[in-house]
Inverse folding.
């Protein structure tokens, strides 16, 4: 019987991970069979190649997905339906193939149901990001199932025009997502904002679109959340500048604000928000009527010396030059923020 002791557990985990990083994929695959410790270390996601799958670029989505899943020394990290040429819609049978390694799922106009979500979650997926746009078959039950199965791992949730998920479904589901940091919701009432403030204390980014919310909803959110760095309120015509001011003032770390396409947007609002957030880096105040005078935007540039991009169509070329004399780093764009996501990533 050998007297050699196994002291492998005494070496720090970070050191083992660093050692394993020098092995190629085939060696890591073999060494996983040695013992439980090496199996755990060699299975760390940081040691393998992540795959980001854009379904719209696949010629034969189902068969191509099977091939990608079985690719050696890789794991599927993100699945989305991007801007490729394919018109194929993601269906339940596609979700049933997804492995447990998937962390981010972005579905656009997908024909997926609660049953498809259930099949995917049975594989043990611990999603960190879930984006659902125009997925009309998904109901309250499917959203709740994601929350129940992920155990609070979801950090980002986007529900855009998913009309089968109603107010009751959101109110019952949000408590299941306590670690949300980034949320985008459409067509919501005040009660959902109140629930966000009550149950999602880690929020950093909030987008509210096309909703009949009022100042009471914004005030409820302001009472509970003070950690926002990004705020988007678009097509929410039933709030007033007072509610917006309260929410903005309650979150001193805001660096990106989008209050475009609201009928209450005017010079006073544009300036009042800027005065409350001197650290603004990105400001979207686009409107259908070229709201805002040159003097207002000069004041904005003075109030926010760190402002890097301003979205507005209200300025002439000469007025833009005058404003850049105040802030030479400022880019003034006539293309709305929602088509300029790379600006958000660069800030």
């Amino acid at each position: 019987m050998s007297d050699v002791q196994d002291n492998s557990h005494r070496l720090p985990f970070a050191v083992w991970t660093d050692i394993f990083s020098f092995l190629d994929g085939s060696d890591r695959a073999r060494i996983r069979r040695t013992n439980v410790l090496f199996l755990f270390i060699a299975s760390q996601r940081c040691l393998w190649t992540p795959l980001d799958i854009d379904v719209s670029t696949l010629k034969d989505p189902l068969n191509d997905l099977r091939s990608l899943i079985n690719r050696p020394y890789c794991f599927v990290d993100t699945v989305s339906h991007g801007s490729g040429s394919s018109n194929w819609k993601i269906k339940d049978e596609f979700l049933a193939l997804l492995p447990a390694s998937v962390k981010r799922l972005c579905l656009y106009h997908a024909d997926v149901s609660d049953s498809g979500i259930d099949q995917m979650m049975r594989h043990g997926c611990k999603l960190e990001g879930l984006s659902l746009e125009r997925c009309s078959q998904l109901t309250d039950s499917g959203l709740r199932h994601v929350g129940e199965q992920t155990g609070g791992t979801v950090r980002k949730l986007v529900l855009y025009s998913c009309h089968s998920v109603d107010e009751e479904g959101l109110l019952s589901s949000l408590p299941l997502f306590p670690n949300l940091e980034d949320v985008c919701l459409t067509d919501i009432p005040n009660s959902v904002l109140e629930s966000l403030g009550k149950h999602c204390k880690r929020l950093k980014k909030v987008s509210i679109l096309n909703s009949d919310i009022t100042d009471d909803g914004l005030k409820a959110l302001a009472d509970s959340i003070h950690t926002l760095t990004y705020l988007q309120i678009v097509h929410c015509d039933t709030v007033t500048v007072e509610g917006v001011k309260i929410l903005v003032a309650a979150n001193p770390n805001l660096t990106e604000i989008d209050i475009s396409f609201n009928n209450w947007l005017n010079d006073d609002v544009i300036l009042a928000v800027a005065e409350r957030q001197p650290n603004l880096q990105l400001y979207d105040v686009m409107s259908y009527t070229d709201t805002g005078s040159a003097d207002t935007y000069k004041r904005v540039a003075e109030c926010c010396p760190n402002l890097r991009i301003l979205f507005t169509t209200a300025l002439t070329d000469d007025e833009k030059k005058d404003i850049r004399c105040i802030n030479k780093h400022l880019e003034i764009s006539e293309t709305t923020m929602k088509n300029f996501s790379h600006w958000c990533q660069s800030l």
